[in-house]
Amino acid sequence: MTAHIITGGGTGIGAATARLLADAGDDVVIVGRRAEPLLAVAATHERIHAITADAADGVAMADVVASTTERFGGVAGLVANAGGHGYSTVGSTTDDEWRSSLEANLTTAFVAIRAALDELERSRGAIVVVSSIAGLAAGPETAGYTVGKHALIGLVRSVARDYGRRGVRINALCPGWVRTPMSDEEMSVLVQRGDAPDVESAYALVTRDVPLGRAADAGEIAATIAFLLGPASTYVHGATIVADGGSTIVDVPTLAYG
To answer: Which pLDDT value is given to residue 258?
Structure first.
């Protein structure tokens, strides 16, 4: 018996993934810095177990892996989903903001992967690193976030190159807009600026040029993560999987033509 570990498991994509995996019969350990949302998610399913820890803390993540292994016999998969903000231009980003953004968006994944690698080798397990389409292109005034998400793809490729022959699979997942509490906050910025009258209108605004015409539900992204962790994707390795409703296929200079 083994379990999956999900960082950033208290809300959004992490919480949706935990529920989906638990419903499928897997044990899941969710990790985050805030106990309250973790416990709320864990209360929804007997197979979801919460550990309060900072995914960027090497000692803390080593303890999470050790506790998971002791309780469940090993680690079957890791979802490196923790992330954070980094919303400013290079010129207006302070040193502290830069460090904080890279810690939240990149270091958390690096530390979690490093902590889990030995157990994942033993189980021949899989890793999914949740990046973003911000890992493929740059939005305005998002220097720290954009750089961190781009770097995650490099991290995935490095681990894939070094650990594939040791039995560990790893892939990057790049979602577009997903309805999560963090995205709701970003929609609220558009409402406050007067660009949209409410959050629903803001989502419509930011997805007006998305070929599917909408944001994803967190459960849709969770299903993609479950696929990448599972037996249906055993030859998918070192890949960057995009789940963005078609956003990144759009030829921006042709938008005026409809």
So the answer is: 75
Q: For the chain, how long is the longest CA-to-CA vector?
A: 59
**Active site (catalytic) residues:** 145
- Per the listing, tokens 């309780």 go with 71
Whichever domain contains 110, its CATH number is: 3.40.50.720
Q: Do the domain assignments include residue 256?
A: no
Q: Which domain holds residue 31?
A: 3-176+215-246
Confirm whether 161 is domain-assigned: yes
Q: Match 């220097």 to its residue by tokens.
A: 143
Q: Could you tell me if residue 91 is inside a domain?
A: yes
Q: Beta partners for 49?
A: 29
CB 61 within 8 A of CB 33: no
For the chain, the domain total comes to: 1
Which segments of the chain have a pLDDT < 50? none
pLDDT computed for residue 256 by the predictor: 87
- What is residue 22's predicted lDDT score, i.e. its pLDDT? 98
Q: Is 72 part of any domain?
A: yes
> Are 141 and 87 contacting, i.e. CB atoms less than 8 angstroms apart?
yes
Q: Whose CA is closest to 52, among 39, 70, 65?
A: 39
- CA 232 vs. chain centroid, Å, equals 20
Query: What three-state secondary structure class fits 86?
Result: coil
First to last CA, the chain: 53
Question: Exposed, middle or buried: residue 108 (CB in 10 Å: 0-12, 13-18, 19+)?
Answer: buried
Q: Which amino acid is at 233?
A: S
Q: Computed over its alpha carbons, how large is the radius of gyration of the chain? A: 18
Q: In whole angstroms, what separates CA 54 from the centre of its chain?
A: 15
pLDDT at 84: 87
